[in-house]
Fold:
Amino acid sequence: MADGNKRVLVVAFDALRPDMVSPQLMPNLTAFADQGACFTHNRSTFPTETRVNQTALVTGCYPSRHGIVGNRFWEPAASPDKLFNTGDEDQLSEGIRRLEGRLTDVPVLGEILADHGKSLAVISSGTPGGTRMLHHKAEELEGFRLSLRRPDASVPADLPQSLDPIPPHSVPSLEWLTYATDTYLNVVEGVRKPDVAILWYCEPDNSYHKMGPGAPENLAAIRHADAEFGRVLAELEGKDINIITLSDHGQLGIPDEAIDLPARLSAAGYSAGEALTEGIDVAVALSSAGGLYVRNSNSDMISRIVEWLLEQPWCGPLFTRGGAVPGTLDLADVGMDHRRAPDIGLVLRSSDTPNSHGINGTTVHNSIYPPGGGIHGGLHAKELHSWLAVGGNAFRNAYVSDTPTGIIDVLPTMLHVLGVKTPSVDGRVLVEALADFNDAPEHKSELLISEKSGGRQTQIEISKVGETRYLDWGRLS
Structure:
């Protein structure tokens, strides 16, 4: 148990777009941001997928260092016959066993805290794999982890028997938001009082996906998430707990059916599947972004596929190792140059076109979600722009910062608040928001443009604060 002024609560609203936070829709979160410190230039990591950014949250690093390069990716050591699906509890736990515990290449929050005699508790109504990703060493560290989707994967193992029955899953997931809040207030804060707690709300992500940003059901989910956050604020009033609110990414609308990329690759002469098994040229790992794994990383085949992609109207920004293929930038430019990264990083085309509910931003997709729903993963500004606001005695009051920030900054900032030494990370301490600091660091932006191929080129804009880089947007022009 920690001293009062050395505790942190992270409340995550999965996929929440900052442009949908308003006094009318989210009065509690708006008031919290107004009273504390709010960051208007906050960015996710690429791909803008949940498990990628959850890992960035608990490591302070980009995929190039932590190694979780997508929600699904090709890692035969963990999953020899199909893509490694980090959202699936069974696949993830088996993969961790196969990897002998080496899921990430850098330390994670749970073990960093444990090394300093501190504790972490996680409650999540998101994917079961995502819950494990936030605290995948909970078993060996004797921590606390509750997945509403897979209570059998909880730590301690007998935890579900001590709780009320979990309601059936539905979308919008209103009852799950309430259950997660109840468990935090009654069990985590009420009994355990950990040094750090993560309360992960599955909304608005669930209703964005199924009904689309701005749908009536989605708006109801956002209101309910805000009301549950209001309960948390009311219960914690007067306690010296520093609160960090965030989202892991934004989300875009999907106006049309999926393009079926494997079928299109097959029609172009490349055998495509979910793994680089015998007879397969390309393993496809993307929903609206991600990449293609090419058999034996054959450079000629990579070049031919890139050339074919650049001819397709649905193609967006492209990335290869070293940016070696014309029309592509370097995987390193988007923080994805890891041995698990795809041979071709691919983002499907997006635009600012509003969806059917008038919310800006739509995209081509290769996902399971229906037309009218939503998806994320790419480099549209609305996917990269994510929510971040903080409050508590460690932070400034009534402060609005336009200095670039990112989810990679949360870990070093919370460790600073806790007085814990931060290991080598990609993020930075958000000194501009600290109660004892007044000057914002300088920042600048940089435009990266690839060599042209067939008249097309990949572009990305990056903001920099010192050596820390943040992705602002990317497109194929």
